[in-house]
Structure prediction request, 123 residues.
Amino acid sequence: MTETSQNPDKFLPLTPAVFNILLALADGEKHGYRIMQEVQENTKGRVLMGPGTLYGSIKRMLEAELIEESDEKPDPAMDNQRRRYYRITNLGKRIFTMEAERLEEQVRVLRRKNLFPKVGDTS
Prediction:
């Protein structure tokens, strides 16, 4: 199935692993270990993604064409030859944006119901 023929809605809602991997790749290609590190950084340590979860998710995401393996390495002289780099596809970007918008709407509902503090609110 090609990227353009897939219905993005069928991917939603994203699992936390898929969302966090796409978030890590949103600003550029990375290798697996760096993705794990960035997920930990982005979640302030609340999400620790082990190799099994990461590479199982990457395999499914490659098959679904949400990400692709990069042919180029940022600096081959400074890198391990076996290290694989991944980047988000156009379909992955679309789905990531749709999921972020869905989550943003959920936060708006929580705030409207006074169940979620506003940014900067310490009460």
In short: Strands lie at 30-31, 67-69, 85-88. The two ends are 50 Å apart (CA to CA).
